[in-house]
Amino acid sequence: FGLSKIRNFSIIAHIDHGKSTLSDALLVRLGNITAAQRRDQAQQLDTLKVERERGITVKAQTASMLYQGEYLLNLIDTPGHVDFSYEVVRSLSSCQGALLLVDATQGVQAQTLTTFRAAQEAGIKVLPVVTKIDLPNAQVEDTIFSMAATFDLDPEHVLATSAKTGQGIDAVLETIVKHVPPPPSEWDAAAPLRARVLDSWYDPLRGVVCLVQCVDGVLAEGDRISTCHLMSGAAAAGAGQGGGDTTFSVQEVGLLTPAPVRTRSLWSGQVGYMIGGIKSVRQVLLGDTVIRAGTRKGASDEAPPPPLPLFAPCRPNLFASCFPLDGDDFATLLTAVERLALNDASLQVHRENSTMLGHGLRVGFLGLLHMEVFKQRLDDEFNMAVLVTAPNVPYIFRDRDTGAEVEIENLADWPEEKRRGVTQVLEPMVEATVITPEDCLGSMLTLLQDKRGTELDTKFIDGERVLLVYKLPWQEVVTDLHDKAKSISSGYASLTYRPIDPEPADLVLCEMAINTEVVGALSFVSHRSSVMRLGRDLAARLKKVIPRQQFEVVIQARLGAKPFARERIPPYRKDVLIKSGKTVGGGDPSRKRKLLDKQKEGKRRAKTVGKVQLPQSAFWALLSKD
Ligand code: GTP
Fold it and tell me: Strand, helix or coil at 625?
């Protein structure tokens, strides 16, 4: 395939607007999968167990398709939830076009706006599509007009499809070939090899598998390769390359359809997989440039080609600690998390030691859903049961005298009250975009004000809906703003956000103590005005979720070592074989075994802090909804 016959495109949309279903419809139409396969396995491109269970896309996936025997179309399916927006940005930077999908029954939503903006920032061609037009409540005309008005488009250019009936799918394919530009003409099959690592994952049988986009040259089986990347910082100075000390021999390359099809070589413009005997997850990083080995250090007179530009770095919005539930499983946890991090460029991991919880990891996430998915993937894919503490946002401490700033990822580093005179605390802020039906505008405004929001913009986007742009503390958004906005609007409002500069705020640390010992992992930071309410609330919630122990448990919320809320859990002799004074199970040994096993499983799912068994729900009590 010459470059002029290649099209790289993505599908972007608000969550649940039908990206994965449309991708599947394209795959069926071009014969990559059969209609029966499609029925058997809902959503071919959602391969992770967590994706199928939750019906969401977490990882961007790729499929190459042959169109009319002459075009190679590379589709990158992207996640819709804002927590996975880093995957979207990364996907867009390797494409020249994107289908912007809008559900005809839902209209333009908050994430439609942000993904459109991301595509514009990436400078790629946007093709607007209305989908689900087969549904009886589809409002096709209205949706087309509001898309045209919101994105300043010609309504004639909006395509209408149904991924269920196949209507309009051919027009989508024709438009992609006609309007998505081919890869840049500077890409050169005759130049020295440069391929970019777009993604990688761990296959138990084959080791590390990389998804690569070949920019220049040809990547062929048998080639000896190494990787390099621009070092951040050095990149600005135009110098410095990192990585690349190890060389690999390429064992297999091919296209993903999405099933792997071995092709033995990948040419400039193609996107495919590469297996190269890479053993350690640290040897290849996302965004690395693959080059031919020997060209980098210039042993010969040939100068190495410069590495391809880096992806923008990803900054975590949330930090939580993660501990193995079986005390000495730390090494297993470390390996599992490293493998997950290989497949998830937005995770950031450091080691941590807690006096109460033992060896663990401090992990940076993009949001709460990202954190929950991380926990579930460890369980599903690595059989690793972990405890994840309540997350906190990263605060910034500014020295009032020198102006020096440090980012605090862990509340254990919170300054004592007496140091407050010299340290100013800044909290992370976001610009949130909310689209809400007009009839619940009043309650939505109250909610945003309760969350310490400041209005930036308000306008009608169609006859019945209002677009609100608010500046809010990220901490207020992360806990429950999304759920509250949904419940106020019976599910009709949508919300998204992007980080903006942090701002000073009057924040305090509320410590939670159990039997007089402060448990750092339960403590939290809040605005001074709401700390008493939240502390009392948390103590009451903990009382509900901590099981009775064989001794009394006293929960306290404290401010500067002074308790202001107290709850008590009375002792209980937890002998599972005795109920209301009678021995259960009678003489039946299998029933007795079952009860004891159940008790053991309960213990396996809890963590002992001091002497008290705390279940996962205790650590997430601060987040739990009313
Ligand atoms: P995320 O990746 O989680 O953001 O979701 P998505 O955008 O990939 O949406 P998905 O393809 O999972 O579709 C969401 C729901 O809409 C599913 O129940 C689909 O069956 C349904 N759906 C998608 N496209 C159509 C369509 O054209 N017609 C009808 N009737 N239903 C559709």
Answer: coil
**Rounded Cα distance, 310 and 226, in Å:** 17
Taking CA atoms only, the protein residue closest to ligand 1 atom 31 is: 132
Nearest CA to ligand 1 atom 23: 18
Q: Is 81 labeled as ligand-binding?
A: yes
User: Residue 609 carries which side chain, given as an amino acid letter?
Assistant: V
Alpha-carbon Rg for the chain in angstroms: 27
Q: Is 19 annotated as a binding residue?
A: yes
Residue 607: beta bridge partners?
614
Are the C-beta atoms of residues 131 and 516 closer than 8 Å to each other?
no
Is the separation of the CB atoms in 47 and 62 below 8 Å? Answer: no
275 vs 596: CA distance, rounded Å: 47
Residue 305 known to bind ligand: no
* Calpha distance 149→138 (Å, rounded): 19
13 is in an annotated binding site: yes
Q: Are strands 454-460 and 612-615 parallel, antiparallel or unpaired?
A: unpaired
Highest mean pLDDT among 124-138, 492-506, 511-525: 124-138
Q: What is the SS3 assignment for 127-145?
A: EEEEECCCCCCCCHHHHHH
Q: Please tell me whether the interface predicted TM-score (ipTM) of this complex is above 0.85.
A: yes
Tokens matching residue 491: 């599910």
Structure tokens at 536: 């009392």
Each residue of 247-267: pLDDT tens digit? 889 999 999 888 888 999 999
CA of residue 149 to ligand 1 center, whole Å: 24
- Angle among Cα 552, 553, 556 to the nearest 5 degrees reads 140
Assigned token pair, 280: 């350690």
Task: List the end-to-end C-alpha distance of the chain, in Å, as a whole number.
Answer: 57
Q: Which among 161, 277, 178, 182 has a CA at the least distance from the CA of 222?
A: 277
Backbone angles phi, psi at 564, to 5 degrees: -130, -5
Mutate to test the pocket of ligand 1, among 11, 16, 106, 167 (most ligand atoms within 8 A of CB): 16
Check pocket membership of 15 for ligand 1, CB cut-off 6 A: yes
**115 ligand 1 Cβ < 6 A:** no
> Is the pLDDT at 421 greater than 80, yes or no?
no
> Does the beta carbon of 164 sit less than 6 angstroms from any atom of ligand 1?
yes
Is 370 annotated among the ligand-binding residues? no
